[in-house]
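Quick one: Fe-S-oxidoreductase from Pseudomonas fluorescens, structure tokens please.
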Amino acid sequence: MHTRLVTPMMKPNLIAAAEIDRLDTWAKYSAPMCGSCISSCCTLPVEVKIKDLVRIGVVDEFELGDPPKNIAKRLQKEGLVERFNQKSGIFTLQRMSNNDCYYLDRKSRLCTIYDKRPDTCRNHPKIGPRPGYCAYKPKEVVREQNFRAIEKF
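--- reply ---
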């Protein structure tokens, strides 16, 4: 899927929408891309450490003495964590049924915990499946895809 992206003082550009599971379709990252993207990076699994969970506010500092396995069980029951890797100490945050991050606002497509977001998110795309690249998907492409899907009905 391609769309024309035109901004003031720019020539039209042909922009390809990335496929989240195909790293070869990801675009070289530049900060201005985020404003016109559907937040596709927020559909990737978010791996966090215990300090991230404290910052987010779902783990109390007093719990840090508890076995991480017990913390993981509680967070899984609360629907905040998908899984926990005991060997690495990495928790994977729960995602919505459409793979959106639990903390991504569905309408605005903005992070609801931006100031407290995990290090994984703070450092994206410096770290991640393809460092320096992102799964950029322009909002216009998504609108076109949704419009075509509606037309089929």
